[in-house]
Amino acid sequence: MSKGNPLRVLHDGTTSGGQLTRREMVQRLLAGMSAAGAWPLVGTSHPIRKLLRNDAVLEEAENLGAADWKPVFLNAEQDESLIALAESIVPGSTKAQVNRFIDLLLSVDNSENQNRFVVSLTALSAEAQRRFGKNFPSLDDNQKNLLLTDASARPVNSNSSDSRTAGKQFALQEHFENLKGWVSGAYYSSEAGMRELGWTGDYVFETFPGCEHPNQHR
């Protein structure tokens, strides 16, 4: 993460006890987002934006670190795939418990967004099977990077006989963007993500610097 440009202060954001809850963290993120008019890697229409304004859900997020945690919405296989995908999309996601937070958010979301998430996750898993004959979590780092790099690329419009292939690539890219929005929103609303953006615990920033994760898929 580049530290070259100082961040402008919106207002003091000192905390009691030196630690913020997820709800307090998101409040600071939303304050910065409102001022900057942008949010790293999350589209304006993505459902996670609305969910991050649900205070009751954010309070529940404080229990995600429990040793006996189990997913509420996802099954075990889906959770395993999400952990691997999230870590590949935004390194550090596993430590930030991105999969657990996404599972919590999905558990209170509407059926349309829930289904869309599962379809997107299934599509990336199917692509891993098609290309490498293995589930995504079983791929090596190079295979994961290659798959996600290709999935993130929007094909050039074509009137040739390759239109069907292009159509499949458009669909895969949309599935990738959907998952990337969930992962990015969950990560950058965590303490690790906020600190990566430049938050130090003393202020809310006015604009967001660009994320410079190595090998991050955009």
Quick tags:
mainly alpha; 218 residues; two-stranded antiparallel sheet; 2 strands
Write down how many β-strands occur, each being a DSSP E stretch of 2 or more residues: 2
Flag low-confidence runs. 1-17, 208-215
State mean pLDDT (0 to 100 scale). 80
Q: How many helices in DSSP terms? A: 9
SSE ordering: EHHHHHHHHHE
| Main structural class | mainly alpha
Principal-axis shape equals globular
DSSP strand (E) fraction?
Answer: under 5%
Compute the CA-based radius of gyration: 18 Å
Q: What distance lies between the first and last C-alpha atoms, to the nearest angstrom?
A: 15 Å
Strand order within the widest beta sheet: 1-2
Number of domain modules: 1
Q: Helix share of residues?
A: 40-55%
Largest sheet: 2 strands, antiparallel
What can you tell me about this protein's structure?
The chain is mainly alpha-helical. The protein has one domain. It is built from 9 helices and 2 strands; from the N terminus they run βαααααααααβ. The chain has a two-stranded antiparallel ribbon with strand order 1-2. α6 packs across α7 and α6 crosses α8. The longest helix has 26 residues, at 163-188. It is globular.
Summarize the structure.
Helix content is 53%, strand content 3%. It is mostly helical and 218 residues long.
